[in-house]
Amino acid sequence: MASVNFNGQNITDEEVKNVLQAIAEVLGRNVNVTSGNHRKPLDVGAGKGSPHLHGRAADFHVQGLTDEIAYQKIKKFHESIFARGYGYQLLWHGPLYRNDGTTYTYFTLLPI
Question: Whole-prediction pTM value?
Answer without folding.
Answer: 0.81
